[in-house]
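Practice problem 4.
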């Protein structure tokens, strides 16, 4: 009876579900029909808008063309070369073409020909008529528009009477709407029916739609409306599109209205989908009836299948659960412990074949792992457990040790008897190793915390101490239990504000914030560095480090740096003073040599003079090398880029050694690579200094009859960035391999004995190496004793921009005899010099050049003379008593017109800061002592030309 009731309940449940399905399908069909209807309406709206837009745009284009072509007739009449036949035949043909070109638009064309008037018209039968006009040309025509054209002298007038409604009706005929469509023209606030067949007599729209149409028409925007319409006794709904446009100069405001009845849109949907939908419902109903009848016969068998399916499904669920583990195999065993089935993955996991695994559990072969599993099953049965779960180490036949996890489900029958089990064995070595590593990491972290000398605190977001670790007990306050207290309670009152700001900022930004604290401890004043940062969303952490020793070390470092700076300044001052003291007598020595060169000397005297001059130049170079190296050590050397041609600069530097090379019978050869003649940008002065040093050494250390080769090339790095590479190769005496690394050391001499063959300071290569490094390059040296040496260097350069190609001319004077120069370049001079030797030398030089001048021996005398007389140039010694040259220059610049005199500074101070001080004081130029006659002459020439130019302006 129970089975029968269950059957009936399932039967009627199936019937109800089938009926519900039919109802759902009907509802789905209705929704689908509505969706199709809405889609069809939206599609028709877009179609209607496009049709209206195309029609309105076409009408505007046709009217614009008509207005332009009507002007051609007027242009034809204006032609003075026309005869009577032209007015009759060609004018008629031209007018007829215009009528044919725009059918329905032109009603009549009235033409005033000065001495007569004619009109043209086209009958309904397309008969073209030209007649003389006897009455007056109309100025207004009912229901028609007029277009009037006249020549500039009013000899000819054209008046077109146009039927815009008829033309529009004919034009929109080509734009298709379905049977329920209507085309209207809104003109002069009235609707004109454009349909060829009058479907509507008196069409009206609902008030809301009409207001919207009037508002859109007034502002000239496109409107799409769903309207309710009424025509006499007929009414309905429709979709209407209004497109405002104009008839050129004829009518400014008009609109085209296309409407489709909504009924015509949905009727197609009904006819298309209704029968299909009814058929689908009938088919579905028949299907439900068929399955209901079949259910009566098959339901019992389905219940049996369902029971079996549930058992199989449970088995598969268990299998899927087990298979989620990686690198595992599934096995089944009976109540005797014999494996009845095992998956093929057993060999991959255990390293034993499937047969070996089955034999191990058959009982014929003893295996400790198998015995362990069987014992666990017996133990689980004794404890009424339904599963076994354990992990253990297993050694494969290959010797590899893996970590296995065994999970087994024990199966019992309905009476509770044990039937066997199914399980999965997986290789969890990776997870096991990860866990062990995590444990080890935790231990390492704990060891780190226990041995870290810093103080650790953990807070909540409000600053309450949750935990802390302090290794050194001396840092614990009198109350060691700090948990639960606020950070801001245990701090000194003066540090609370700074700590709170850092704490809050670290919590808000998530970035570490550092605060320095100064506390009074048992050992006196102590310094701490505290870093606050978020540990997670709910906790903050701080690491406090004692930095008392660091502060003491920093203080000592500052004091050491100050002492080093003081020593460096003392060294620089000493070098500056020594340079000044040496250059002062050198000024007299080299200046007298320059003056002697301008006198008549015999060969022997000139040879003696040349020896003295070379000795003085050598001493000057030694002083320059020492000062250059001092500036490099002090970091005061600057890189000053300029535009130059590398090949041209190389030739200029090599030319200096041609005389010496010829005397030693040395071949001096230069070779320029591609692109080296282009304009580049770098510090040409320092590159020349390196080349002079390397070529000079090569010529000096190459014996007679030898050879020196200089190679120059460019290596491109990027678009405008290059390496300028220069190589100097000689056939000289060579250098021992062990001595090469020491060549760039300052003051190093390969031959350091008192009887050495070559003299020098040993600073040249050291300075060259430092300059190369500053310019982003490298100096390399290759040499073998007796075979010569190769010195090469590379520096960074870049291609000069097109707008920077101005290259200064060489400062070397082209003139060799300066006697009588004052007559060519006159200038009013004032010489300020207090040293008698320098004054005597400058007097001899200026007299040699032919200049007259006055002398001042201190800055105060200079000021008095400048105020009293008109000077054009002051040669101003920088170091003078009473008032020095810099201060005197500043005061001169304050003398209004008198202060515009040119000032050239004279000094033995050659550091860059000395030049900068002179420039800041207002000096126009600066000459280093010893002052050479040629250089002085060039400066006097330069400023004499400037004075001459100012006077000419």
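Answer key:
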């Amino acid at each position: 009876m129970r089975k029968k009731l269950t059957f009936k309940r399932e039967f009627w449940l199936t019937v109800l579900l089938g009926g519900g399905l039919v109802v759902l399908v009907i509802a789905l069909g209705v929704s689908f029909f509505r969706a199709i209807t809405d889609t069809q309406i939206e599609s028709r709206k877009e179609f209607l808008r496009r049709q209206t837009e195309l029609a309105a745009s076409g009408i505007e284009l046709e009217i614009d063309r008509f207005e332009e072509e009507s002007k051609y007739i007027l242009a034809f009449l204006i032609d003075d070369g026309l005869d009577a036949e032209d007015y009759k035949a060609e004018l008629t043909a031209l007018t007829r073409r215009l009528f044919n070109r725009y059918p329905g638009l032109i009603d009549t064309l009235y033409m005033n020909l000065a001495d007569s008037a004619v009109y043209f018209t086209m009958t309904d039968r397309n008969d073209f008529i030209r007649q003389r006009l006897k009455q007056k040309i109309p100025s207004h025509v009912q229901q028609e528009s007029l277009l009037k054209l006249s020549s500039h002298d009013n000899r000819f007038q054209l008046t077109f009477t146009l039927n815009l409604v008829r033309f529009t009706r004919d034009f929109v005929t080509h734009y298709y709407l379905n049977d329920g469509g209507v085309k209207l023209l809104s003109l002069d606030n009235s609707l004109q029916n454009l349909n060829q067949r009058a479907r509507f007599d008196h069409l009206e729209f609902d008030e809301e739609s009409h207001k919207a149409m009037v508002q859109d028409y007034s502002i000239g925007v496109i409107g799409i409306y769903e309207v309710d319409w009424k025509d006499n006794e007929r009414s309905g709904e429709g979709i209407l599109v209004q497109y405002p446009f104009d008839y050129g100069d004829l009518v400014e405001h008009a609109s085209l209205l296309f409407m489709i009845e909504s009924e015509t849109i949905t009727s197609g949907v009904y006819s298309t989908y209704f029968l299909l939908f009814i058929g689908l419902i009938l088919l579905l109903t028949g299907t439900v009836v068929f399955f209901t009848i079949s259910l009566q016969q098959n339901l019992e068998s389905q219940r049996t299948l369902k029971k079996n399916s549930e058992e199989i499904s449970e088995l598969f669920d268990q299998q899927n659960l087990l298979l989620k583990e990686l690198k595992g195999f599934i096995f089944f065993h009976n109540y005797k412990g014999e494996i009845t089935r095992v998956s093929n993955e057993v060999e991959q996991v255990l390293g034993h074949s499937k047969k070996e695994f089955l034999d191990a559990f058959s009982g014929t072969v003893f295996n400790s792992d198998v015995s362990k599993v069987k014992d666990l099953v017996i133990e689980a049965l004794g404890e009424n457990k339904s599963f076994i779960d354990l992990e253990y180490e297993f050694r494969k036949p290959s010797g590899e040790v893996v970590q296995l996890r065994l999970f087994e489900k024990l199966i019992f029958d309905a009476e509770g008897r044990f039937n066997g089990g199914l399980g999965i064995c997986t290789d969890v070595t990776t997870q096991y190793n990860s866990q062990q590593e995590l444990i080890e990491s935790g231990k390492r972290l704990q060891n780190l915390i226990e041995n870290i000398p810093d103080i650790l605190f953990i807070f909540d977001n409000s600053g309450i101490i949750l935990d802390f670790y302090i290794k050194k007990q001396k840092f614990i306050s009198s109350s060691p239990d700090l948990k639960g207290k606020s950070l801001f309670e245990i701090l000194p009152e003066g540090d609370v504000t700074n700590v709170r700001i850092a704490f809050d900022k670290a919590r808000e930004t998530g970035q570490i914030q550092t605060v320095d604290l100064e506390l009074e401890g048992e050992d006196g004043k102590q310094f701490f560095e505290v870093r606050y940062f978020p540990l997670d969303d709910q906790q903050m952490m701080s690491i406090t480090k004692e930095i008392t020793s660091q502060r003491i070390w920093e203080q000592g470092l500052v004091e050491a740096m100050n002492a080093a700076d003081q020593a460096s300044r003392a060294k620089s001052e000493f070098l500056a003073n020594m340079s000044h003291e040496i250059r002062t007598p050198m000024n007299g020595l080299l200046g007298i040599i320059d003056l002697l060169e301008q006198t008549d000397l015999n060969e022997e005297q000139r040879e003696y003079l040349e020896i003295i001059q070379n000795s003085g130049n050598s001493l000057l170079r030694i002083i320059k090398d020492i000062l250059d190296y001092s500036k490099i050590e002090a970091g005061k050397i600057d890189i000053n880029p300029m535009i130059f041609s590398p090949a041209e600069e190389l030739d200029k530097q090599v030319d200096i050694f041609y005389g010496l090379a010829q005397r030693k019978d040395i071949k001096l050869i230069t070779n320029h690579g591609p692109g080296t003649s282009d304009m580049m940008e770098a510090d040409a002065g320092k590159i020349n200094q390196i080349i002079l040093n390397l070529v000079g050494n090569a010529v000096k250390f190459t014996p007679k009859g030898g050879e020196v080769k200089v190679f120059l090339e460019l290596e491109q790095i990027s678009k405008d960035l290059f390496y300028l590479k220069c190589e100097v190769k000689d056939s000289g005496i060579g250098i021992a391999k062990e001595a090469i690394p020491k060549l760039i050391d300052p003051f190093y001499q390969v031959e350091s004995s008192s009887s050495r063959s070559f003299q020098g300071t040993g600073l040249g290569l050291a300075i060259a190496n430092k300059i190369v490094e500053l310019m982003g390059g490298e100096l390399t040296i290759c040499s073998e004793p007796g075979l010569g040496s190769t010195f090469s260097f590379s520096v960074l350069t870049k291609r000069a921009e097109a707008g920077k190609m101005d290259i200064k001319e060489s400062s070397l004077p082209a003139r060799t005899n300066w006697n009588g120069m004052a007559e060519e370049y006159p200038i009013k001079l004032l010489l300020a010099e207090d040293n008698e030797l320098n004054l005597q030398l400058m007097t001899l030089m200026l007299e040699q050049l032919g200049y007259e001048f006055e002398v001042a021996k201190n800055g105060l005398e200079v000021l008095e003379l400048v105020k009293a007389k008109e000077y054009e140039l002051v040669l101003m010694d920088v170091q003078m008593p009473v008032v020095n040259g810099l201060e005197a220059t500043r005061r001169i610049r304050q003398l209004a017109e008198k202060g515009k005199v040119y000032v050239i500074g004279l000094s033995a101070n050659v550091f860059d800061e000395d030049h900068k001080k002179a420039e800041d004081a207002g000096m126009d130029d600066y000459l280093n002592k010893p002052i050479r006659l040629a250089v002085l002459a060039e400066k006097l020439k330069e400023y004499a030309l400037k004075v001459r130019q100012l006077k000419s302006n």
